[in-house]
């Protein structure tokens, strides 16, 4: 493996690669610290201590310390980038819909011209398949590509689809604990992993750009810029763009895709007044879950709070054999998701950790205390349902203790997208 385009802390780690530049890990510019590894300028994230190696006080950046300590008394090394052409061959097992083809052509055009594009596509529109032609065109030019997302689960899902389609490409998968095996010509990674690069990627495709932590952390958006070459195309994919993201693009740079690839409408949330307590069985929820088992359908039950979810789970676990719960702090999270995919779990109590990046057949969802969720989360959760062409008419059941603006906005957005898709003739 070569470290092309990478930030390196020890030149002994390179072989035939060429050094592009070296600079202190942290510099003081006009009284303000800046980290040259991640670009951080938040002064609260710098820390001073006495370094016994250089016998003086040094400053290091806490924001990117997991990627190697960047500090003022030691240089970091930027390795020269390198391009490598391939034939860009890929396999697609189905023909793109008219909507997907329009998006694919726009993405390919933006990639070839090194322009930016925002794809506002409903959940289940088939966004991943829309980027294939653009990736192929870029690889034929020798452009380096990064397909990134804030969520590990999404990254893994996208990686599986890309490796299945681009079988002749050497694709690196990178997230915490998982490192590159090849030469970083084609990378699928969490956004944080781009901190390892400087000026390397000609195409950066950001899936789920609105997901936490990317929507909350502008430093990560800067990381995308820093990892990009001087001439680079950025393609942003999301079902729920916020106002700040939309404001960064003009009308011609936004492609709106209101239909799912299979031509069925988006499921509409059903609002039901129902209070779920952590100390008492809820007959309505129990009856629904039992019906789900009888109908051989799977169920996600979404909660806003981990501890509350665990207490409620302890009530219902006595009534079902294939029931589990999962959250971001669950050490067995990835194992449970794998069991879910292997049909070993029928009912999953979950936080918003499963609102994205997973597709199952015959799935319905329940949202507990829907009034505590924002509209983006409600739209994403609803988007888990009816993603497979063979199993439409799924349920999005929203239990609540009072309607909110977020709830109404989410429902109205889904209805609006269905109406637009119907007007264009993309759903029936």
TrEMBL record:
Annotated InterPro entries: Helicase/UvrB_N, Helicase_ATP-bd, Helicase_C-like, P-loop_NTPase
A single MF term (Gene Ontology): helicase activity
Keyword Repressor carried by entry: no
Coiled coil regions in record: none
One Pfam family of this chain: ResIII
Residue ranges of every copy of the Helicase C-terminal domain listed in the record: 288-428
Keywords: ATP-binding, DNA-binding, Helicase, Hydrolase, Nucleotide-binding
Lineage top rank: taxon: Bacteria
Limits of the Helicase ATP-binding domain: 108-259
PANTHER family in the record: COMF OPERON PROTEIN 1, PRIMOSOMAL PROTEIN N
UniProt name for this protein: DEAD/DEAH box helicase family protein
């Amino acid at each position: 493996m070569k470290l092309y385009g990478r930030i390196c802390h020890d030149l002994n780690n390179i072989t035939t690669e060429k050094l592009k530049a070296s600079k202190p890990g942290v510099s003081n510019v006009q009284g303000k610290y800046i980290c040259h590894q991640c670009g951080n300028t938040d002064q609260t994230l710098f820390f001073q201590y006495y370094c016994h190696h250089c016998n003086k006080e040094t400053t290091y950046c806490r924001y990117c310390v997991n990627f190697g300590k960047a500090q003022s008394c030691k240089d970091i090394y930027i390795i020269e980038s390198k391009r490598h052409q391939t034939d860009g061959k890929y396999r697609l097992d189905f023909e793109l819909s008219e909507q997907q083809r329009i998006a694919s052509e726009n993405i390919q055009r933006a990639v070839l011209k090194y322009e930016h594009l925002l794809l506002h596509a409903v959940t289940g529109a088939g966004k991943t398949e829309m980027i294939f032609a653009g990736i192929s065109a870029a690889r034929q030019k020798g452009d380096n590509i990064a397909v990134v997302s804030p969520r590990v689960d999404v990254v893994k899902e996208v990686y599986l689809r890309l490796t299945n389609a681009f079988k002749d490409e050497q694709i690196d998968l990178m997230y915490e604990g998982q490192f590159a095996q090849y030469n970083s010509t084609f990378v699928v990674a969490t956004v944080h992993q781009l901190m390892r690069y400087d000026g390397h990627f000609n195409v950066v495709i950001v899936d789920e750009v609105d997901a936490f932590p990317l929507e909350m952390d502008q430093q990560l958006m800067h990381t995308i810029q820093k990892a990009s070459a001087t001439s680079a195309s950025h393609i942003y994919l999301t079902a729920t763009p916020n106002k700040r993201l939309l404001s960064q693009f003009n009308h011609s740079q936004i492609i709106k895709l209101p239909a799912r690839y299979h031509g069925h409408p988006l499921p509409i949330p059903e609002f039901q007044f129902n209070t779920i307590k952590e100390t008492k069985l809820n007959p309505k929820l129990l009856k629904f879950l039992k019906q789900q088992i009888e109908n051989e359908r799977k169920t996600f039950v979404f909660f806003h709070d981990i501890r509350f979810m665990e207490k409620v789970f302890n009530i219902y676990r006595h009534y079902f054999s294939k029931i589990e719960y999962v959250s971001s702090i669950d050490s067995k999270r990835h194992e449970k998701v794998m069991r879910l995919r292997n049909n070993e779990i029928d009912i999953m109590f979950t936080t918003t950790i499963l609102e994205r990046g997973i597709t199952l057949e015959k799935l319905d969802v329940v949202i507990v205390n829907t009034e505590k969720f924002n509209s983006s989360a409600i739209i994403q959760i609803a988007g888990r349902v009816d993603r497979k062409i063979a199993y439409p008419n799924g349920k999005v059941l929203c239990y609540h203790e009072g309607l909110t603006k977020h709830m109404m906005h989410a429902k109205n957005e889904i209805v609006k997208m269905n109406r637009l898709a119907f007007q264009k003739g993309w759903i029936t």
